[in-house]
Amino acid sequence: MPVDRLLPTEEAADIVAEVAGFARAELAPRAAKAEEVGEFPRELVAQLGEMGVFALPHEERWGGLEQPYEVYLQVLEEIAAAWFTVGVSVSVQGMTCLALATEGTDEQRERLLPAMIGGGLLGAYALSEAQAGSDVSAMRTRAVRDGDDYVLDGSKSWITHGDVADYYTLFARTSPGHRGVSTFLVPADAEGISTGARERKMGMTASPTTAVHLDGVRIAADRRIGAEGEGIRIALESLDSGRLGIAACATGLAQAALDACVAHAEQREQFGRPVASFQGMQFLLADMAAAVDTARATYLMAARKRDAGRPFSRDAAVAKLHCTDAAMKVTTDAVQVLGGYGYTRDFPLERYMREAKVAQIFEGTNQIQRLVVARHLLRRSSRPRQRSS
Hints:
single chain, 389 residues, alpha+beta, four-stranded mixed β-sheet, four-stranded antiparallel β-sheet, 10 helices, globular
């Protein structure tokens, strides 16, 4: 059922409605089959880019639509409610553009950004490594300056769009130490790049996840984004926004599960009456609805702080933590609501449950989110108290 949203303008409401209609008509009917066979819907993701979805939060001078981030996230939620894999793909694409949009020079943005946000190119965010997941500072991939070029060597792991990307927003070590990481936009067809076999995953099987290997990959120095040594800062700032994308996608997934349960409870009869008439079922559905509504409110609060130019790192961590935990709980309960039907692949609930699990892991595990929140709390409590006069 349609979500009753509060949007800042009529234009924003029209955008969300248009994408929601496309998602229901074009994405939802194809999701189950594509996930069954592991088929990535590249053309549908590109079509969303052509509709302006990638461009929503970016400046008009680079081809953007300058919509608030809260609008972009609600569009993401509608996409993910129809097909979680596609929602995550759009969120990842957004992350790959953030470094250039916020740290690139005007020349770089004019040359590269329009194709990245216009649907013509698909990106991958290449940060994680086998030994550097939560601990980004353990990164081993290196970029060595050689005249007007950099030469890159190393491997990245768990890369969404790994073998279908046109470019990688990639982080590599340019010097020792915590501040020794830099950011690069690496063309996927550069000589020396190869990808591993696709990971055999529990869920999101239509989304290609691979390792990316770099063996003497030479790129022009003007493909570096920002100054040398600013890579970890750029990565973490991108992750703050990316976590909101995953929070919105998780909320969409939970909403889809809730909608399926309500429809089933109204149609399924036991003991001569609809299952929805039993108080135990009503309470379970009410708890699921409360979890979905709270998740939406949580990511929207973080997005509105971002739109207002206020610090939102703690809020993004809370949103990612709460929304993905809520999605896991709601989808698990949804399987229970459908009983034996929920456990079969004839209904989408078991797929939703498998997809919800990964949301608690990528863009920083939920344990890392708790660490981020705790550090913000303790940093505040450790400030010296002013003496009263």
